Amino acid sequence: MNCSVPRMKRDKCKGMNFMRQKEVATVVSQKCIGTGVYSMIIKTKAAEDAVAGQFVSIYCKDKTKLLPRPISICQINRENGTIRIVYRVVGGGTEEMSAYKAGDSIELIGPLGNGFMQRENKKAILIGGGIGIPPMVGLAEALKDKAEVQMVAGYRDELFLTEELENSGKLYVATEDGSVGTKGTVIDAIREQNIEGAVIYACGPTPMLKAIKEYAIKNNIECQLSLEERMACGIGACLACVCKSKEKDHHTNVNNKRICKDGPVFMAEEVEL
């Protein structure tokens, strides 16, 4: 399944989420790459047809935690049959995951969701903020032979994944404290560095995505946003990730979309932030 096509042709892909079966995958390796930030490589069938922007839902071994944890896919290695996830420890589920070691089994479902629509021959601006940076690594790798790739990564202070990003194009950095790159936000970096492009791909915290959407509309730039930060279970069970949409859902007839099922990637004009 390749979801890198216009949304009107992607509807057939959405139903694939319901056909995915839980899989017992294997941890290949794991390491800490920042304060509370971990990188895990997993041997999984999900590597066969995953695309940039999709995610996997990982089940805890602690069965008191019934719902899985949705984690964005950072990199895909089809040859080795592996995916890489990079996540931050924010609760009991991810704390448990951070203790996994090579050879451990891990239950997951994936790949899930709609990935980014990759535009060929269109100068790209990839924007990631915080733990929204990992999916930009895989997207940059997928795009680098199709279009000119520029990346803007926003951090609070501590940097991670910069080497991987630099392997796929020009990287600009923004930090809140100004310790590296532009002091301020990713929008500040775009303006300071006079970064221009034909399409924006972005993932990160909602305030950042809202600012990017406004910037894209003002400058008439196509903009795709991943709202993965707002997902809770990743399988459509909890309804915690419902967001307002411009158009009515054709099933419920209300202006709502479930990010895990209808997204996590949307055209900026589709959703209200």
Describe this structure in words.
The protein is α/β, with parallel strands linked by helices. It folds into 2 domains: 7-112, Elongation Factor Tu (Ef-tu), domain 3 (Beta Barrel), CATH 2.40.30; 124-270, Rossmann fold (3-Layer(aba) Sandwich), CATH 3.40.50.80. The chain contains 7 helices and 15 strands. It has helices at residues 11-14, 92-97, 134-143, 162-166, 186-192, 206-218, 259-262; strands spanning 23-34, 37-43, 55-59, 69-77, 82-88, 105-112, 124-129, 149-155, 170-175, 182-183, 199-203, 222-226, 242-244, 256-258, 265-267. The strands form 3 sheets. The chain has a 7-stranded mixed beta sheet with strand order 10-9-8-7-11-12-15, sandwiched between helices. Strands 1-2-5-4-3-6 form a 6-stranded antiparallel barrel. Strand 7, helix 3 and strand 8 (149-155) form a beta-alpha-beta unit.
In short:
With about 270 residues, this protein is α/β, with parallel strands linked by helices. The protein contains seven helices and 15 strands. The strands form three sheets. The chain has a seven-stranded mixed sheet with strand order 10-9-8-7-11-12-15, sandwiched between helices. A six-stranded antiparallel beta barrel has the order 1-2-5-4-3-6. The chain has a two-stranded antiparallel ribbon with strand order 13-14.
